[in-house]
Amino acid sequence: MQTLSANDYVKYITQQVVRYLDTPKEERSVKKARKKNEEPPLLNKWFGVLPFAFSLLLKKRNKK
Predict the structure, then answer these.
(1) Residue 38: φ, ψ to 5°
(2) Is pTM beyond 0.70 here?
(3) Structural contact between residues 52 and 43, judged by C-beta atoms closer than 8 angstroms
(4) Which of 11, 35, 36, 57, by CA, is between 20 and 30 Å from 29?
(5) Distance between terminal CA atoms of the chain?
(6) By C-alpha distance, which of 34, 32, 56 is closest to 44?
(7) How do the pLDDT tens digits run along the chain, 64 residues long?
């Protein structure tokens, strides 16, 4: 993995901020709403993939 120097990091952050500010407000709000709708289930968000794996295990046992 390549590490960034301080100048490269500042340059990257500046580019991201400028890109964000250049997008129209309507487009940002649409993107934010779309991302919110695609949000993962609450259990996955709080506890990671373990609840999902556990639920798959339970479903698999119930089918047999």
Answers:
(1) -90, 15
(2) no
(3) yes
(4) 11
(5) 45
(6) 56
(7) 567 788 999 999 999 999 999 999 999 999 989 988 887 777 667 777 887 888 888 888 887 6
